[in-house]
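Suppose you are handed only these lines of text.
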Amino acid sequence: MPELPEMEIVARRLGAALPGETIESALAPGINALKTFDPPLHALEGRQFTGVSRRGKLLLLELDDLVVLLHLMSAGRIQLYEKRASLRDRTSRLLLRLPGDRELRVREFGSKQAAWVKVLRAEDVAGDESLAGLGPEAWPDPPPLRELLDAPRPLHTLLRDQQVVTGIGRTWVDEILNVARLSPFKRGDDLSDDEAEALRAAMVSELGRVIDVYEERVDLPLPEKFPKPTRVHAHQGEPCPQCGTVLEAVFYEDYVMTYCPTDQTDGRVLKDRRLSRLLK
Ligand SMILES: [Zn+2]
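From them, the structure of the protein bound to zinc ion can be written out as follows.
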């Protein structure tokens, strides 16, 4: 799933390639992808890209007074292609056709249609509901976390709540909590000042580390699968990068969290909540 580091490098790469390019035609073949109707999609035709930016996990394609806001959700991909797609390609959600047969294309894989696109007037962007409710960016300079996370909820859900702090998902939350040596189930309102500061530092350094890896390894054409410089997430059974203890995994709802018992849970191996719910 694309999180802040993935979208950051997408914004950088497309931001270097698109400005000055003119959209010849715009199509949204996926019936559910386009969430707005005014301005219409064809208002993009003839317009030039002026910039590309990111907010949290969302991408903003800027065209003077219009903005294409998009969220790839878990299975979407965006790519600048040298050749236009066949309209029969069922994975296509948005096609922005450029001169010379090239095309900026959003595709989505899997059975669900979750990725979405909005065409907004530039002056309406800040107030759009998908952006207005977002918390501060997790990187590069999040505010102090003690007050931000002051809620009786576990850190792994608080940190992934885009309205609390924006940009982090299931992959990078495991890495951040491991570096900060905090349990995924520690409550936000239980953080000491030192722990909150360690968590903030881990967030900045981990997301920054990943972006640095992408900066070195990801170029156009954007890869279908990003390199995943993970050390903890989904690495259960392997040694902890901090201390060498074998990493453990715990199932929670429909996903897996990976953590180090020595660094994060005072040596305790967490109960499998999925399993314990089934046993009730
Ligand atoms: Zn460890």
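What can we learn from it? The mean pLDDT is 93. The chain is about 25% helix and 20% strand.
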